TrEMBL record:
<dbReference type="GO" id="GO:0008270">
    <property type="term" value="F:zinc ion binding"/>
</dbReference>
<feature type="compositionally biased region" description="Basic and acidic residues">
    <location>
        <begin position="183"/>
        <end position="193"/>
    </location>
</feature>
<dbReference type="GO" id="GO:0035196">
    <property type="term" value="P:miRNA processing"/>
</dbReference>
<dbReference type="InterPro" id="IPR022755">
    <property type="entry name" value="Znf_C2H2_jaz"/>
</dbReference>
<protein>
    <submittedName>
        <fullName>Zinc finger CCCH-type containing 7B</fullName>
    </submittedName>
</protein>
<dbReference type="InterPro" id="IPR000571">
    <property type="entry name" value="Znf_CCCH"/>
</dbReference>
<feature type="zinc finger region" description="C3H1-type">
    <location>
        <begin position="410"/>
        <end position="436"/>
    </location>
</feature>
<dbReference type="InterPro" id="IPR039691">
    <property type="entry name" value="ZC3H7A/B"/>
</dbReference>
<dbReference type="Pfam" id="PF12171">
    <property type="entry name" value="zf-C2H2_jaz"/>
</dbReference>
<dbReference type="InterPro" id="IPR036855">
    <property type="entry name" value="Znf_CCCH_sf"/>
</dbReference>
<dbReference type="InterPro" id="IPR036236">
    <property type="entry name" value="Znf_C2H2_sf"/>
</dbReference>
<feature type="domain" description="C3H1-type">
    <location>
        <begin position="410"/>
        <end position="436"/>
    </location>
</feature>
<feature type="region of interest" description="Disordered">
    <location>
        <begin position="183"/>
        <end position="209"/>
    </location>
</feature>
<dbReference type="GO" id="GO:0035198">
    <property type="term" value="F:miRNA binding"/>
</dbReference>
<keyword id="KW-0479">Metal-binding</keyword>
<feature type="compositionally biased region" description="Gly residues">
    <location>
        <begin position="197"/>
        <end position="209"/>
    </location>
</feature>
<keyword id="KW-0863">Zinc-finger</keyword>
Length: 477
C-alpha cells in the first residue's frame, strides 16, 4: 500500500493481511482483545437468531462463562460446588456421594473477579415466565427450583436466548468454552509479542491487562482538608494558596483522577502489612455511608481509584507515593501519544472470564462472600468469621445497595431531636433525620432480618449464632 500511491488499496485488495490505515489497526486491536464484536454493530434479526453469537454476547456482557455443575451438590445446604470428576467422567467430583453426573448436571454461569460467583440456570420449560422473580432478587425465593420466574438476570437472559434460538445447554457450554479458548490463545499471542515491540523497557512487569488510566498530582494536604486543590510553587517551597503552607514531603497528598469519574480523589499511602492481602477490598463504611469512622489508618480502600492504585503498587512492588508518581511521569512521557498516560496492570486481575481449570475449585461454597472452602474445618472457620457474618448485613458493591436512598440505619430508630436545625452530627448521627429516612430504616431492618433468616436456612449461618458485632442492634427491638 505504501508503494501504491493514493489508490488506497494494495494489489491484494481485501485479502491483504496488513492494515491499510491507523484506524484499521486500532479496530483490529480491540477486536483481538475480544472487546469488540463487529457482528453486534450490524445487528440484524439473523444475528439475533444466531445462537452462538447470542451466547458470546452474554459472556461478554456478564464477564463470565457457562459450565456444568452437579445440581444435587449445588442445591444442598450449604451449597457444594462439584464438577464432572476428571478421573471418572460418569460421576461428580464430590467423592463422598458420587452423584451420577450426566443425569444430574445443571447449567451454571460463573463469574470470577476477586471472588467467585455461581448462578444456576435452570432448564427452560414452556411454563417459564420471561420475567424476574421479585422474591429471588431480594430475599431469595422459597419456591426455589419450582418457581417459574427467573432467579437472576443471567438466568433470564439465557432463557430469552434459548427461547429465541432453541440452543441447548450442551451447545451453550460448548460455545462458551470455544470462545474462552480463543481469548486465551489471543492473550498468549499478545504476551508473546510484547517484549519484541521495543521501547517498552520501562513498563512494569505484567503488561496487557487492565490499564490504570489515571492522572496524578501532589497537592497541599492542609488545603485539601479544607476542600482546596493547591499545587506547590515553582521552587517547591510553599503551596500556591493564599495561606502559603510550607511544602514538604509529608505535608502533601497524592490525588488521582480517572477518566470514568473525572474527579480528583486522594490516594492514601499503601497500608503497611507484613503479608499484604491478595486484593484490597473497599471499606464497608464508605460504601454504606460515604464516611469512614475508623480512627486509625483504615486499611480498606476509600475509593475505587485508591483500590486500583494500591493493587498497582502491590503488584509492582512500589512502596511510596513518590515512586508511583515518578513511574507515572516516566511512562506518560514514554508512551505519549501512542496510548496516553496509561499504566498497564498485571493481567491477573483482569482475567474476569474464568477458565475451566481455574474454576475447577470445588467444595463448600459461600454465596455471600463468593468463596470456596475445601475442607469442613476451613468452612467452619469461614462461616464463623466476622467478615463473613458482616456480609449478611453489608451489601458492599452489590445492586442491593442501589435500591436504598438513605444511609445505612443508625442505632436509634427514632427521629433525631436535633433534626429540625440541621443536626451537627450529619451522616454519622445515630438517629434518623427525617420521617422518610426512618421509614426506610425500618424497612431495611426488616429486609436484613429476612436476609439473615435465609442465610440460616441455607446453612450459611449456624443456628446458634447470635453475635453479629456492630450489627447486633438490627436484631433487637
Ligand atoms: Zn497490502
Ligand atoms: Zn454431586
Ligand atoms: Zn422465584
Ligand atoms: Zn496549602
Ligand atoms: Zn475505612
Ligand atoms: Zn462467607
Ligand atoms: Zn442527628
Amino acid at each position: 500500500l505504501i508503494n501504491s500511491g493514493d489508490l488506497g488499496v494494495c494489489k491484494y485488495g481485501e485479502k491483504c493481511t496488513f492494515a491499510y490505515n491507523q484506524l484499521e489497526i486500532d479496530v483490529w486491536t480491540v477486536e483481538r482483545k475480544g472487546k469488540l464484536n463487529r457482528n453486534l454493530l450490524f445487528e440484524t434479526t439473523a444475528s439475533k437468531l444466531d445462537p452462538v453469537i447470542s451466547v458470546i454476547r452474554l459472556l461478554e456482557e456478564h464477564k463470565g462463562m457457562f459450565i456444568f455443575l452437579c445440581q444435587e451438590c449445588y442445591d444442598s445446604k450449604p451449597r457444594i460446588i462439584s464438577k464432572r470428576f476428571s478421573e471418572n467422567p460418569a460421576i461428580c467430583s464430590n467423592l463422598d456421594v458420587c452423584h451420577n453426573f450426566d443425569t444430574n448436571k445443571c447449567l451454571a454461569f460463573v463469574v470470577r473477579t476477586h471472588n467467585i460467583n455461581y448462578s444456576k440456570v435452570r432448564p427452560l420449560s414452556g411454563s417459564c415466565h420471561l420475567d424476574l422473580c421479585h422474591q429471588a432478587i431480594r430475599y431469595g425465593c422459597q419456591r426455589e427450583n419450582s418457581c417459574v420466574f427467573a432467579h437472576s438476570i443471567i438466568e433470564l437472559k439465557t432463557w430469552k436466548v434459548q427461547r429465541l434460538t432453541g440452543i441447548s445447554s450442551e451447545k451453550i457450554v460448548e460455545a462458551s468454552l470455544k470462545h474462552y479458548n480463543k481469548l486465551e490463545q489471543n492473550s498468549k499471542k499478545e504476551k508473546g509479542n510484547r517484549p519484541s515491540s521495543g521501547g517498552g523497557g520501562g513498563k512494569p512487569k505484567g503488561g496487557g491487562g487492565k490499564s490504570l488510566d489515571m492522572k496524578m498530582k501532589f497537592v497541599c494536604a492542609q488545603c485539601w482538608r479544607g476542600g482546596l486543590i493547591s499545587e506547590p510553587d515553582k521552587a517547591l517551597k510553599y503551596c500556591n494558596a493564599k495561606a502559603r503552607h510550607t511544602w514538604t514531603k509529608d505535608r502533601r497528598v497524592l490525588l488521582v483522577k480517572s477518566p470514568e469519574r473525572s474527579k480528583w480523589v486522594q490516594v492514601r499511602p499503601l497500608p503497611h502489612a507484613k503479608n499484604p492481602p491478595l486484593y484490597y477490598d473497599m471499606c464497608a463504611q464508605i460504601l454504606e455511608k460515604r464516611k469512614c469512622n475508623y480512627t486509625g489508618n483504615c486499611t480498606f480502600a476509600h475509593s475505587q481509584e485508591e483500590r486500583e492504585m494500591w493493587m498497582y503498587m502491590k503488584n509492582n512492588d512500589l512502596r511510596d507515593m513518590q515512586q508511583v508518581y515518578d513511574m507515572w511521569l516516566a511512562l506518560t512521557a514514554q508512551s505519549r501519544p501512542a496510548d496516553g498516560a496509561t499504566f498497564s496492570q498485571p493481567s491477573s486481575e483482569e482475567k474476569f472470564i474464568a477458565m475451566p481449570t481455574d474454576c475447577a475449585e470445588s467444595g463448600l461454597h459461600c454465596r455471600l462472600c463468593g468463596k470456596n472452602s475445601n475442607s469442613e474445618r476451613q468452612w467452619q472457620q469461614h462461616i464463623s468469621s466476622e467478615k463473613h457474618k458482616d456480609r449478611v448485613f453489608s451489601c458492599e458493591g452489590e445492586d442491593e445497595a442501589l435500591t436504598w436512598s438513605y444511609r445505612f440505619p443508625g442505632t436509634r430508630f427514632e427521629i433525631c431531636p436535633k433534626a429540625e436545625a440541621k443536626c451537627p452530627d450529619g451522616a454519622s448521627c445515630d438517629y434518623a433525620h427525617s420521617r422518610d429516612e426512618l421509614r426506610e430504616w425500618i424497612e431495611r431492618r426488616n429486609f436484613l432480618r429476612q436476609k439473615l433468616a435465609k442465610a440460616r436456612e441455607d446453612m450459611l449461618i449456624m443456628p446458634d449464632e447470635l453475635d453479629f458485632g456492630k450489627f447486633n442492634f438490627l436484631l433487637q427491638d
